[in-house]
Design goal:
The protein is of the alpha+beta class and 201 residues long. The protein has one domain: Uridine Diphospho-n-acetylenolpyruvylglucosamine Reductase, domain 3, CATH 3.30.465.10. The strands form three sheets. It has a four-stranded antiparallel beta sheet, with helices on both faces. A three-stranded antiparallel beta sheet has the order 2-1-5. Strands 3-4 form a two-stranded antiparallel sheet. β3 and β4 form a beta hairpin. The chain starts with a helix and ends with a helix. Bound molecules: flavin-adenine dinucleotide. The site of flavin-adenine dinucleotide has 21 residues, from α4 and α5.
């Protein structure tokens, strides 16, 4: 029941995980941020929603009334999750990553992500999660993650193309456009993460 606005303005998050606080700060408008919740957003798993990228991009754990579900197993497809009909999300646990950032290319009318990319580095664990583009919802870009293991920098993913196969095409953007945007937003997120994270992991 934690509202987007509460997460965006959490002093604890602003100090320890500002990349996560920045995600709900970019959701919709003030009315939406005062009504929508992190649990509702994650359970809904809209393919253009922002929180799924943060959960997958940080390796969060979704805690429910029955069990703990790693984000890698939670988001199972468009508007679909591992939740059972009688299962309620009670908590979401996020590990702290010093190097992390989210960059979103907003649809100018709705504010939803045409493409949003969350990147993080926590020790050897490197994650690049994309929302807004996949026809099965949020997904990780393993080609970027492998390249970033050598050096966590925007330069490391230069020249690596994301295939347009399996990406959404609609009146707002075709699959090729979204594929290109993934690279652009990933580089912006990496630049923000490395500027924010300094030399620490
Ligand atoms: C105008 C507008 C603009 C928006 N822009 C954005 C945007 O830019 N980015 C973005 O990410 N989202 C955006 N949203 C979505 C919004 O942020 C909400 O998260 C979303 O509408 C779901 O609403 P809710 O959180 O109140 O959940 P609800 O509507 O209450 O619930 C959604 C679903 O999840 C289930 N559910 C709710 N809570 C739980 C729980 N704790 N455990 C298990 N199941 C649960 C409900 O039963 C329901 O099936 C926008 C919405 C609107 C209306």
């Amino acid at each position: 029941m934690t509202k987007h606005d509460d997460v965006a303005n959490s002093p604890v998050l602003k100090e320890h995980l500002p990349a996560l606080a920045s995600v709900p700060a970019q959701i919709g408008d003030p009315h939406v941020r005062q009504a929508g919740t992190i649990g509702g957003s994650i359970a809904n798993n809209d393919p253009n929603a922002d929180y799924p990228a943060a959960c997958l991009g940080l390796g969060a754990t979704i805690v429910t009334s029955k069990r703990k579900i790693p984000a890698d197993e939670f988001f199972t497809g468009m508007f679909s999750t591992a939740l059972e009909p009688d299962e309620i999300i009670t908590r979401v646990s996020f590990p702290i990553a010093k190097k992390a950032a989210y960059q979103k290319f907003r649809h100018p009318a709705s504010g939803f992500a045409l493409v949003g990319v969350f990147v993080s580095k926590r020790g050897p664990d490197i994650r690049v999660a994309v929302t807004g583009a996949g026809s099965n919802g949020v997904f990780r870009v393993t080609a970027f993650e492998e390249a970033l293991k050598k050096r966590f920098s925007p330069k490391s993913i230069e020249g690596i193309a994301v295939p347009a196969d399996g990406l959404n095409s609609d009146i707002h953007a075709n699959a090729e456009y979204r594929a290109h945007l993934i690279g652009v937003m990933a580089k912006r997120a990496l630049a923000a993460a490395t500027a924010r994270g300094g030399g620490e992991d």
